[in-house]
Structure formats: C-alpha cells, structure tokens
Design a protein that fits this description.
This protein is of the alpha/beta class. Helices cover about 50% and strands about 10% of the residues. Helix 4 packs parallel to helix 5 and helix 5 packs parallel to helix 6.
C-alpha cells in the first residue's frame, strides 16, 4: 500500500481559510471532472483513486492525490489520517462518488459478487463517512454529498446489484440527513442519469469477469446488453457530460440551504415524476420497455 504522506510530499501549502473537499473515484468521469473544476474554483481538493497508476496520473495533472480503496478499511483509515495531517484536522466537504455497476440477472449474480458491489458502492462509503462526521461535528459545519443514480429511484432489469446498492444508499443517506439535523452538517444526494464516463466500459468488464452466461436463460437479453455496453459514444440521446453533475455539486457545497436531492439528466426528472404518478404495474411496463426487456 502506498504511503500517502509520501504521495503528498511537496504539495502546495495553502491558506487555512481555503475550504477542503475529499472526493472519491477520481480516476475518470464525474470524480475527475469535479476535482479539476473545484480546484479551479478555489477549493483545496484531495482527489482519491483505488489504483496507484491513477493516483500518479492525478498528481501529474496538478492535483493533491491519495490512494483510497473503498473495499479496504486500512486504506480508508490511512487516507483520512493523511488528509487530516495535511489540513490540520479540517475538512469542509466529502463527495462520495467512487462506484461501479455490476450487470447481470439477479439469478445469475453470485452472492460474493453482490457483496463486492455493496462493499464499494455502500459499505466503503459508510465507513469513510463515519470517519469524517466527527471532524465536521468539531467544526460545527460540513457537507456530505452522495453521488447516487436514477437507479436509486427506479429499477431496470439486469442491473439488480447496482440498483440494490443505490437504493440502500438512498435509504442510508435519508436517515443520516435526519440524524444530522441542526448539526451544521448538510447531507445531499445527487441523482444522475446517463453521464459520459467510463461507466459502461467498467460495467462490461465486470460482467465478463463475474457472470457465467453460457447456461443462462437470459442469453438473448445478454446479447442485446453487450451490444449496448460495446456501443461507441453516448448510450442514449439524453447523455450529458460530467460538468452537469458538477453544477449541482457546487450548489450543494455553497448554498446556505442545499437541496436534499439534485436530479441530473432528463431520465431522472422523468422517472422521478412518473414514479409518483403511476401505479406499480404501469411503472413496471415502462421500465421493462426502457430496459429493453420483455416479460417472462
């Protein structure tokens, strides 16, 4: 495991008045875009990534970087300790963002694969957040911002592991928001739909690694799914760049009264509204069509 103190050696010492933010999952996509945008805005950004080569790339691009593996308690603790050493025990905001999607039919997902999905997408976030809350309590202020998904609001077929992790995140975050009421710590959810990133490429890799489709009754759908995952460019016409998430992130960081939820992309607004209006049966029909799935 990398010594994060060594990684940060030589990093610029900045004013104690500069607000600091810790961002997970900065190797690409939303995390990387957020790190650069917030640094340009004047924040002191600590960008984290799981792999050493990604940490090196972040450093080469002028960011303060830490190695942080959300499936490794020791890595989480070391990253927090290093950050606090560098900031004299201060941290204004945490942006939990690092996650991945595990495709596959629920009946085809081995339990250990489902557990790994939760380790990264939920349990690691929870562990990191528990380290951070006492810091913010001592300060009397802070922002905890969770990057969820439209699939934390509605489900789509063959995304069961990811759906479940985001539904669990939504429930945990809503509870945390109530428990931190009047503490000075604001808790927000960002719920993007399709965003330009490496998400599909990573999901395809995880499907090939963890799902045995050779004897599956879902082979026909898997063929369509692979075509979508391999497709070049945007997966849907509603795909937005990661900057659209950063806009909401900035509001969540800087508004005196940040929102509990921030929708991003047309599908999130659409499904969030329809879920309130339609019956479960009607919503199922819509979601089956959106998933490219027929009933069995």
């Amino acid at each position: 495991m990398r010594d994060n103190n060594a990684v940060l050696a030589g990093a610029e010492i900045v004013s104690h008045q500069q607000k600091t933010i810790l961002i997970t999952g900065c190797s690409s996509g939303i995390g990387l875009c957020s790190a650069h945008a917030l640094k340009q805005r004047g924040y002191r950004v600590f960008a984290t990534a799981r792999h050493e080569q990604d940490v090196d790339a972040l450093l080469a691009n002028g960011l303060e970087a830490l190695q942080l593996d959300l499936q490794d308690s020791e890595s989480i603790q070391l990253a927090v300790e290093t950050l606090l050493t560098r900031t004299n025990g201060q941290l204004y905001a945490l942006f939990n963002n690092g996650a991945y999607g595990q495709p596959g039919a629920v009946e085809d997902i081995p339990t250990d694969v489902l557990r790994a999905q939760f380790e990264t997408n939920l349990f690691g976030w929870h562990e990191l957040t528990r380290h951070i809350i006492p810091i913010m309590r001592n300060q009397g202020e802070g922002r905890i911002i969770q990057n969820s998904s439209v699939l934390g609001l509605v489900v789509m077929a063959y995304r069961g592991a990811y759906n479940a992790s985001k539904f669990a995140l939504e429930g945990l975050t809503d509870t945390l928001r109530l428990e931190l009421h009047n503490s000075g710590i604001h808790v927000c959810l960002i719920e993007p739909g399709p965003i330009k990133s490496q998400f599909r490429a990573n999901a395809y890799r995880m499907w090939k690694e963890n799902i045995d489709a050779t004897e599956s009754v879902h082979q026909e759908h898997y063929q369509m799914m692979v075509q979508r995952l391999e497709k070049k460019g945007a997966a849907t016409p509603f795909t937005l760049p990661p900057e659209s998430v950063v806009e909401r992130l900035i509001h969540a960081l800087e508004s005196p009264r940040p929102k509990a939820r921030y929708y991003v992309t047309f599908p999130t607004y659409l499904f969030g509204t329809l879920k309130r209006l339609l019956t479960t049966r009607a919503m199922d029909r819509l979601l089956l069509k959106a998933s490219g799935s027929g009933s069995r």
